[in-house]
Amino acid sequence: MRKLLGLLFVVFSFHGLSAQRFVYVDMEYMFSQIPEVQRAQEELDAKAMGWRTTIQNMMFSVDSAYKAFQAEQVLMTERMKADKIQEIEDMERSIKVYQKEKFGPEGALFAEKDALLRPIQDKIYDEIQVYAEEKGYDFILDRSATTMVLFGSDRYNKSDDILKRLGYTVSK
User: Fold this and answer.
1) What is the mean pLDDT of the chain?
2) Which are the contacts of 6, defined by CB distance < 8 A and separation ≥ 6?
3) How far apart are the C-alpha atoms of 52 and 55, rounded to whole Å?
4) How far apart are CA 47 and CA 109, in angstroms?
5) Under 8 Å CB-to-CB from 68, ≥6 apart: which residues?
6) Residue 110: half-sphere exposure toward Cβ, Cα within 13 Å
7) How far apart are CA 41 and CA 84, in angstroms?
8) Would you state the pLDDT for residue 8?
């Protein structure tokens, strides 16, 4: 009798687990299908290229100042040498500060990316929430994230459904 009760307990425990419904979406794929994301990425790339050009120009200025210093240092007093070295070091520091301001973890590039993509991400996440509730899904995983979805059958991929609900045409 105890074995039968134990077996029934195990069977009903697994029955509850099997009732959960899982599907997945691929956010990377979804972003590739949304024109606004492409435009935002192009805008970010253009800004980043401008900032990189500025950094290269600043580095060229430092290099030129250093070469000029090397050529003229024989004519300089110790005080003039120290001042020139300090000036070059200040220029190098300003490059590092500029790089951090633009490309650092809390820099302008990440802030711009967040400002441009956050509304699109929020719209997608809201639609996924509504979709999950309407279809009765317990979990919707993101295949492109680090959730370790090692395999996912295409029949469980609901990315196209979400894109269509958001009004985007899907091109395969």
Assistant:
1) 85
2) none
3) 5
4) 8
5) none
6) 8
7) 41
8) 39
